[in-house]
Design a protein that fits this description.
By secondary structure, this protein is α/β, with parallel strands linked by helices. It has a single domain, classed as 3-Layer(aba) Sandwich (Rossmann fold), CATH 3.40.50. Helices cover 61% and strands 13% of the residues. Monomer.
Length: 188
């Protein structure tokens, strides 16, 4: 099963993806983690990505899609992928659909985590304090939130039209949200 965890920055996608990996054995394909690894590598690509991410901007589709495609065989072996932070645009969604179709599979469900914007700011501040991520400062967060609203939110009707969108209340404890996600995934 291939699923997309969808929602604005700081909504808990990464936390819930890790829970799904633990519970179901699927592979988490977090573009954020992949991009941070590229940055940490100090490679030429990593340095280009760093400048983009530190400014709160979205990394170009071609780079992100290449990173995703490299990991698809691993996800297939595990029985599924959890796309976390991807796709972010309709063009990326179409590229993902094409990449999966070439492999004889598809996106099965899109789980939208619905949270309050004030809670997002509080979560971002906590994560920045705990993890010290440069991309979690308030200014970069506002840029990322606006990018989400302008570029990523249009994916909702794209996946709703395919009958794949499942909306889940994203507020509450990690366990409560995980239970709501499991219920949404286990119902047809």
């Amino acid at each position: 099963m291939n699923i997309i965890l969808f929602g604005p920055p700081g909504c808990g996608k990464g936390t819930q993806a890790k829970k799904l990996v633990s519970d179901r054995g699927w592979v988490q394909l977090s573009t954020g983690d992949m991009l941070r690894a590229a940055i940490a590598s100090g490679s030429e690509l990593g340095n280009r990505v760093k400048a983009i991410v530190d400014g709160g901007n979205l990394v170009p589709d071609a780079i992100v899609i290449e990173l995703i495609e490299e990991r698809l065989p691993e996800a297939e072996s595990a029985g599924g992928a959890i796309f976390d932070g991807f796709p972010r645009t309709v063009a990326q969604a179409e590229a993902l659909d094409a990449a999966l179709e070439k492999r004889g599979t598809q996106v099965d469900a899109v789980v939208r985590l619905m949270v309050d914007e004030q809670e997002l700011v509080a979560r971002m501040e906590k994560r920045a304090a705990e993890e010290g991520r440069a991309d979690d400062n308030i200014d970069a967060f506002k840029v990322r939130l606006k990018a989400y609203q302008d570029q990523t939110a249009p994916l909702l009707p794209f996946y709703a039209a395919q009958g794949k969108l499942k909306e889940v209340e994203g507020m509450g404890s990690m366990e409560d949200v995980a239970a709501r996600i499991a219920a949404a995934l286990d119902t047809k």
